[in-house]
């Protein structure tokens, strides 16, 4: 018998070996190809190239278009070498041509071309190839204008330059020398307008050739994660441990045929399964030195940089296949010690906490481009291109025209700064003594609960919370004329009532400014405006001016009561102004008489002196009060802002900077006067001018090309390098100009550090300057190039003809002058504000100009300084760069390319066995391949010297080449028996979905891709526009509805609607394809209460510009356009304000029904129809073919048990996890069983810690985005049902009849009735038992959500806050979708459903099963039985449902084939 057993076993093994002998040979590979298509047609590369020039080098844009050869255009429109030759002919440098090559390879400008095409949505063929008039008064975003002469009269030319007729029409237009706007059009082969160019082209599911005309994308990663098969959850019945087949062998049939061999066959099957798994587990000591062995392997790969870089990329992408090779890689202890010594040089700086496990310290990865650290969390190949092109232009401007050596350029980058000053203003001592202080934080008992130590401000807090101390650290001075407006005095009431009386430790003082009686006796007195200027020739002597009686009485009353400390009386006085706008004297006298305390008189001359001192300071309090917060002006975002709101704005804006100066020990506990110390630190100014300090604008400024200019300059010190102010006078009013010249002369007579140039396009200004011979001279600016420019061209670049003119100053600051003249004091202030750090002057003075063959005087160097500092300000801004040469090269750990003199210098610190290495090493290789010697790359390897876990457990590829296809080529033996989950690593602003795949991408068997190459295709379905929405007090407007509407389309259908989160005011909107959109509030309650005040956008990578500052450039205050013209979608800050009369309206309040017959009104302001009220909404998730199979059965069980009349059911699924085959089947399934469905998607917010496995990501989507996931006007309640659940009851009972008892969530508690599982009920002891405090622990397989209440109570925001805190601990949220709502019950209460609503064999007794309304196939931690096996065993009807669905699918296939 034993002989027969062995005989049959060998026979079976022989048969199996014959089946797979081909796959067991050496060098057999598995192949998987994957690609992503866009939703728009391929765009011609020649037009993409033109958009490159329009964006990066607009001065060469028209030159490039004129170089195009029209005769060959249809053959060369996509020929990259020919296009690059046109660029070379357009006087492009080698670096610029390489940059264009990179842009064309990555299709960087294809979205921009798509937007350009969209501008022709309303034209016909008759409008092509000739000039037409089409109301071009408003230039559309991204428009390019030829021969722009400033004239508003322009014509439009619509052409397809990829057709010979269109190309010739453009060439003809150039000859006309007209001013015109070029608009691109796409034509078909028949030269008709291609209407598909305007549309979003959606692929059909499972169509292999459906996408041939669509653009193929690159710039994304694909990861194949090795799947944990603890519960053996695969869709293939043939691989189940207790099912029929394994590897094509029918083990059940064999056991029937040979029952006496049943046990032996089971043993054989188990042996085969185990041998098919990857080689036995690597021991901890075998993986300990993987970091060192990787460095050794890279260094052994060759002497040249490219070989080492390729090896680094190959190891990081194919680590599972390299493990055995690395284990066998030998190294010496000396080698390891040398690596450790090198790492010690930057050990502390480039270590960090693991974001997924804060208890673990890991190596930090970093990339620096010319010393600028790139944000790896947001970096994509597209944002890297933008940063690279900006740096290339920046360094080229510095080094090409101004005779600077490479050393000087380096010093300017790393040893200088042009950062803006933090503007503070100091009230002079003679005025400060008149401030009435209402409180003193350091002396009053009401603040005794606050600590006194400044360092306590640095202690950590929850997001949004602030710490305060018992010191005069936050100081407010409110300067007002109490009789100017009612609000001037009622603001004091708001400040004292809502700030001081509520115990906020903010010191509040008021400086009352009197109203002066201006006598008229042939003399003039002009009140000084905000700029502190007045154009009066004869001022009234001070002695002849008096304070008006109402003003005198009121100031003496308020100051007298305040100094007496009688706050009750003061409040009574202030409140009397709340509803009384009568400022007549009798009203003030009545108030004065009501006070019983004697009030000392204030001399008239003292009040007049106070008035003059404020005017000299430059503040105009007659039109509006001024609030200084620690010396900084806090301006209202809206006229309706109250005093307390201004103070809160001041706290928000300065809180972090206060913490920083405490951290830097600039202020300490020993300092007596903190305000004085703060003002000294910020070098506070003693004068204000709104023109100088408000809304700074910067531009590139150069005198190069001007033949001669008139300047005023004090040349006492020939070594001084002055800063430069250039004044353009467009309107040469002789009297006004003379005053400005006199002020300038007065200024330069006292300083050698400034020179002032005067230019006038309309008249020779030299005649007016000639009388000041001591300081006036004609000067010919330094010529650093061949370009020429007239005075008119120079001035019109910065100022319109309608303006008086303006000032361009050092740093590139541009100031538009107003009707008010500039005084000598203003010039003093401008010099003080815009003066350069000594380091900048010293660096430029220290440049070796002689080595460049030029002899320069001080004015020549001043010319260079003007140009260089404007370049620095425009391109460098507030950025602090870092010289990475402090990390010295090492023969073991440093890889570097050849040309270290290149304008681009990239330094990377990379852990070679890390996820960032997988993603960013391919980007560096792409830069190396395309930019060549135009970039110097140095990589410092930063390995983990010892590791106890596998650093990488996946294969990865990043798509930069190979025709935009992600290719996996792995040895068959490396992947045999393994199952992978595919993870798409796309840019943050992409939403992609699978549209074609025969394989199960959630349970991918790469070994099966050896027989035939596997292929999958995705589509970039939406660009995600993200941003922050705040009101005019910078507060997130939670619950506000925003919508995105195409602006360039005949169809004004809303693309997407969303609501604003409380978390950071975050929102996201989905744009269907590149286009120009308009941001709007949804009509109804939201637009009734709020209006959009402004929008401002940056690209996704640069979003911090709008999160933490005003950003550069103007806001859109009229159209509120959002331009999606890049693969990195925009980040848009939306500022809204309340409409008049809606100041106190609660956006989230439930609106009462207007009439009984009206349907119920939600807090969103939309009616529910009767049809919607009778629809059950069911939400579920599935990923992988097995769970989709279970999902189909769940749908059928719900539908078949729906008994209530006139009730529909609509299922909602998360689109991004569904397979193409399921999405293809779904419409037919819905039709066959009469249900509706909706597919939703949501991009994971960048600020929320993202799970790194697909399973946890799915769990997170179950609970974290319930408030924003579903259509806002349609879904008001939803029932979540797990995919592996079978419904036995009518869900309408749960949906319509359940009393939620005021709670937004309802879950079923875990069963207690199966006693043998008691040891697995973790919630009954330890931490969970303490935390729950008697509350039940609920199961997440079935729950009900009152979406309206959930949104109104911002429970989604609370879930996200709790998750973000807990997810940082790897030991928390083990069952994320279940643990999170149970943990958060204290903030988000849960109604417990009756136990019979969910039965699960793992936890519930067999006796309770007959009452079950739903049965869930919970994982059993004891048996770990496969879901499909347990489904057939536990649920009798499951197999019937399964067979019914299979029959439907079979019939559909037959119908299709017929």
Task: Kindly state the percentage of residues in helix.
Answer: 25-40%
Low-confidence stretches: 16-25, 237-243, 520-543, 1152-1167
Mean pLDDT: 84
Number of strands: 51
- Morphology call: globular
Classify the secondary structure makeup into a structural class. Answer: alpha+beta
Largest sheet: 8 strands, mixed
Work out the strand percent.
15-25%
Computed over alpha carbons, the radius of gyration is 37 Å
Summed up, the helix count is 47
Distance between the termini: 55 Å
List the helices and strands and how they pair.
Layout: H1 2-20, E1 29-41, H2 45-56, H3 61-67, H4 73-76, H5 80-89, H6 94-106, H7 110-118, E2 131-132, E3 144-146, E4 155-159, H8 164-176, E5 180-184, E6 214-216, E7 221-226, E8 245-246, E9 249-250, H9 251-257, H10 262-276, H11 284-287, H12 290-299, H13 305-317, H14 319-327, H15 333-344, E10 351-354, E11 357-363, E12 366-369, E13 372-373, H16 381-400, H17 406-414, H18 429-432, E14 436-437, E15 475-480, H19 486-500, E16 507-512, E17 516-517, E18 546-547, H20 549-564, H21 567-576, H22 585-594, H23 604-617, E19 626-629, E20 632-633, H24 643-663, H25 674-681, H26 690-693, E21 709-713, E22 723-729, H27 734-748, E23 754-759, H28 766-769, E24 776-779, H29 791-798, E25 805-809, E26 813-816, H30 824-834, H31 838-845, H32 858-876, E27 894-896, E28 904-910, H33 915-931, E29 935-941, E30 954-958, E31 965-971, H34 972-975, E32 980-985, E33 990-997, E34 1014-1031, E35 1041-1046, E36 1056-1059, E37 1066-1071, E38 1075-1081, H35 1085-1089, E39 1090-1099, H36 1104-1107, E40 1121-1124, E41 1130-1138, H37 1170-1173, E42 1175-1180, H38 1185-1200, ...
Parallel strand pairs: 1-34, 4-5, 15-16, 22-23, 28-29, 34-41, 42-43, 42-45, 43-44, 47-49, 50-51
Antiparallel strand pairs: 1-6, 1-31, 2-4, 3-5, 7-30, 7-32, 8-9, 10-11, 12-13, 12-28, 14-16, 15-19, 17-18, 19-20, 21-23, 21-24, 22-25, 25-26, 27-29, 33-34, 34-37, 35-36, 35-38, 38-40, 39-41, 45-48, 46-51, 47-48
């Amino acid at each position: 018998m034993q002989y027969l057993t062995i005989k049959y076993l060998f026979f079976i093994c022989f048969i199996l070996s014959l089946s797979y002998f081909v796959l067991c040979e050496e060098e057999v590979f598995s192949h998987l190809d994957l690609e992503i298509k866009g939703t728009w047609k391929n765009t011609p590369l020649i037009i993409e190239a033109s958009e490159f020039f329009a964006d990066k080098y607009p001065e060469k844009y028209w030159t490039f278009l004129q170089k195009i050869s029209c005769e060959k255009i249809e053959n060369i429109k996509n020929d990259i070498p020919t296009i690059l030759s046109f660029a070379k002919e357009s006087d492009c440098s080698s670096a610029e041509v390489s940059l264009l090559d990179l842009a064309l390879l990555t299709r960087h400008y294809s979205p921009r071309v798509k937007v350009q095409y969209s501008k022709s949505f309303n034209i016909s063929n008759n409008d092509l190839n000739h000039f037409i008039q089409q109301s071009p008064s408003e230039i559309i975003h991204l428009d390019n204008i030829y021969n722009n002469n400033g004239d508003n009269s322009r014509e439009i030319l619509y052409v397809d330059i990829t057709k010979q007729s269109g190309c010739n029409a453009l060439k003809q237009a150039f000859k006309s020398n007209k001013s015109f706007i070029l608009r691109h059009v796409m034509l078909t082969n028949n030269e008709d307008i291609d209407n598909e160019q305007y549309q979003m082209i959606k692929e059909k599911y499972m169509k292999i050739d459906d996408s041939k005309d669509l653009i193929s994308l690159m710039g994304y990663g694909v990861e194949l994660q090795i799947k944990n098969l603890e519960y053996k959850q695969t869709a293939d019945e043939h691989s189940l441990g207790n099912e029929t087949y394994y590897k094509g062998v029918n083990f059940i049939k064999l056991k029937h045929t040979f029952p006496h061999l049943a046990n032996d066959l089971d043993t054989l099957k188990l042996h085969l399964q185990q041998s098919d798994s990857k080689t036995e587990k690597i021991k901890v000591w075998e993986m300990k030195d993987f970091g060192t062995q990787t460095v050794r392997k890279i260094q052994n790969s060759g002497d040249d940089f490219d070989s080492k870089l390729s090896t680094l990329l190959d190891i990081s992408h194919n680590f599972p296949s390299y493990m055995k090779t690395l284990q066998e890689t030998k190294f010496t202890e000396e080698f390891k010690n040398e690596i450790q010594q090198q790492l010690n040089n930057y050990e502390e700086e480039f270590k960090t906490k693991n974001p997924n496990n804060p208890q673990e310290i890991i190596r930090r990865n970093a990339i620096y481009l010319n010393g600028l650290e790139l944000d790896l969390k947001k970096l994509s190949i597209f944002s890297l291109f933008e940063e690279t092109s900006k740096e290339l232009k920046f360094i080229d401007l510095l080094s090409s025209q101004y005779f600077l050596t490479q050393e000087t350029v380096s010093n300017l980058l790393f040893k200088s700064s042009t950062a803006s000053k933090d503007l503070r203003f100091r009230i002079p001592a003679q005025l400060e003594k008149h401030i009435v202080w209402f409180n003193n934080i350091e002396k009053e008992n009401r603040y005794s609960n606050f600590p006194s130590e400044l360092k306590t401000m640095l202690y950590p807090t929850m997001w949004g919370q602030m710490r305060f101390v018992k010191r005069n650290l936050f100081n407010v001075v409110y300067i007002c004329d109490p009789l100017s407006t009612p609000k001037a005095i009622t603001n004091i009431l708001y400040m004292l009532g809502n700030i001081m009386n509520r115990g906020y430790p903010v010191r509040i003082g008021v400086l009352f400014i009197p109203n002066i009686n201006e006598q008229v006796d042939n003399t003039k007195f002009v009140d000084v405006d905000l700029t502190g200027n007045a154009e009066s020739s004869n001022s009234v002597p001070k002695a002849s001016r008096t304070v008006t009686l109402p003003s005198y009485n009121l100031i003496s009353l308020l100051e007298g009561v305040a100094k007496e400390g009688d706050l009750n009386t003061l409040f009574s006085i202030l409140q009397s102004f709340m509803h009384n706008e009568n400022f007549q004297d009798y009203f003030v006298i009545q108030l004065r008489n009501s006070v019983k305390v004697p009030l000392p008189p204030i001399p008239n001359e003292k009040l007049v002196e106070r008035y003059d001192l404020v005017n000299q300071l430059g503040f105009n309090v007659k039109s509006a009060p001024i609030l200084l917060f620690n010396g900084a002006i806090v301006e209202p975002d809206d006229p309706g802002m109250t005093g307390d709101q201004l103070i809160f704005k001041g706290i928000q804006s300065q809180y972090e900077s206060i913490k920083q100066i405490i951290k830097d020990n600039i202020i300490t506990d020993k300092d007596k006067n903190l305000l004085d110390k703060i003002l000294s630190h910020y070098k506070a100014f003693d004068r204000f001018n709104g023109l100088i300090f408000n809304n700074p604008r910067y531009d590139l400024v150069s005198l190069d090309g001007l033949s001669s200019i008139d300047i005023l300059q004090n040349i006492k010190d020939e070594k001084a390098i002055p800063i430069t102010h250039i004044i353009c006078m467009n309107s040469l009013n002789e009297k006004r100009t003379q005053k400005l010249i006199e002020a300038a002369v007065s200024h330069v007579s006292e300083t050698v550090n400034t020179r002032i140039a005067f230019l006038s396009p309309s008249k020779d200004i030299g005649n007016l300057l000639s009388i000041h011979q001591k300081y006036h001279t004609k000067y010919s600016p330094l010529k650093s190039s061949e370009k020429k420019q007239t005075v008119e061209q120079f001035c019109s670049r910065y100022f319109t003809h309608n303006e008086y003119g303006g000032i361009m100053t050092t740093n590139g600051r541009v100031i538009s002058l107003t009707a008010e003249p500039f005084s000598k004091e203003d010039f003093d202030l401008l010099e003080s504000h815009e003066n350069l750090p000594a380091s900048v002057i010293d660096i430029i003075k220290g440049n070796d100009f002689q080595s460049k063959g030029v002899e320069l005087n001080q004015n020549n160097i001043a010319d260079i300084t003007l140009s260089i500092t404007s370049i620095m300000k425009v391109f460098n801004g507030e950025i602090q760069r870092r010289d990475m040469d402090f990390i010295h090269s090492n023969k073991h750990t440093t890889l570097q390319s050849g040309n270290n003199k290149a304008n681009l210098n990239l330094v990377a610190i990379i852990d070679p066995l890390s996820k960032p290495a997988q993603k960013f090493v391919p980007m560096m290789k792409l830069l190396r391949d395309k930019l060549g010697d135009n970039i110097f790359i140095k990589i410092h390897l930063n390995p983990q010297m010892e590791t106890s876990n596998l650093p990488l457990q996946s294969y990865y590829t990043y798509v930069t080449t190979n025709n935009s296809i992600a290719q996996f080529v792995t040895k068959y033996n490396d992947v045999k028996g393994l199952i992978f989950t595919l993870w798409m690593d796309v840019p943050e602003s992409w939403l992609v979905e699978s549209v074609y795949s025969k394989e199960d991408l959630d349970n991918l068997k790469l070994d099966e891709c050896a027989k035939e190459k596997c292929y999958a295709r995705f589509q970039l379905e939406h660009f995600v526009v993200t941003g922050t929405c705040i009101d005019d007090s910078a507060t997130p407007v939670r619950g506000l509805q925003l919508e995105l509407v195409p602006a360039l389309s005949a169809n004004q259908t809303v693309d997407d609607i969303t609501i604003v989160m409380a978390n950071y005011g975050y929102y996201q909107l989905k744009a269907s394809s590149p286009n120009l959109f308009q941001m709007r509030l949804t009509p109804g309650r939201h637009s009734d209460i709020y209006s959009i005040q402004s929008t401002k956008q940056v690209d996704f990578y640069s979003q911090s510009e709008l999160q933490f500052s005003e950003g550069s450039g103007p806001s859109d205050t009229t159209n509120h356009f959002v331009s999606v013209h890049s693969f990195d979608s925009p980040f848009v800050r939306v500022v809204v304000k309340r409409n008049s009369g809606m100041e106190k309206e609660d956006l989230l309040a439930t609106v009462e029904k207007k009439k009984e017959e009206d349907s119920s009104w939600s807090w969103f302001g939309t009616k529910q129809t009767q049809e919607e009220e009778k629809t059950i909404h069911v939400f579920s998730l599935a990923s992988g073919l097995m769970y989709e199979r279970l999902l189909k059965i769940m749908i059928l069980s719900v539908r078949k048990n729906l008994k209530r009349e006139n009730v529909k059911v609509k299922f909602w699924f998360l689109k991004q996890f569904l397979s193409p085959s399921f999405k293809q089947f779904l419409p037919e399934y819905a039709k066959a069983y009469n249900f509706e469905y909706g597919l939703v998607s949501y991009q994971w917010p960048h600020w929320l810690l993202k799970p790194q496995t697909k399973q946890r990501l799915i769990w997170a989507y179950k609970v974290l985005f319930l408030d924003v996931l579903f259509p806002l006007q349609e879904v008001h309640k939803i029932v979540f049902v797990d995919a592996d659940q079978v419904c036995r009851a009518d869900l309408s009972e749960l949906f319509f009849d359940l009393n939620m008892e005021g709670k937004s969530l309802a879950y079923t508690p875990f069963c207690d009735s199966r006693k043998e599982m008691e040891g697995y009920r973790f919630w009954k002891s330890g931490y969970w038992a303490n935390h729950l405090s008697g509350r039940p622990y609920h199961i997440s397989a079935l729950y009900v959500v009152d979406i309206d209440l959930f949104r109104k109570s911002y429970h989604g925001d609370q879930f996200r806050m709790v998750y973000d805190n807990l997810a940082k601990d790897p030991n928390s949220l083990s069952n994320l979708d279940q643990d999170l709502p149970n943990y958060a019950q204290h903030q988000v209460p849960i109604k417990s459903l009756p136990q019979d609503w969910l039965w699960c064999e793992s936890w519930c007794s067999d006796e309770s099963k007959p009452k079950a309304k739903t049965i869930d196939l919970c994982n059993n931690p004891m048996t770990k039985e496969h879901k499909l096996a347990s489904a057939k065993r536990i649920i009798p009807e499951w197999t019937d449902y399964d067979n019914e669905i299979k029959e439907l699918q079979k019939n559909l296939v037959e119908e299709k084939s017929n």
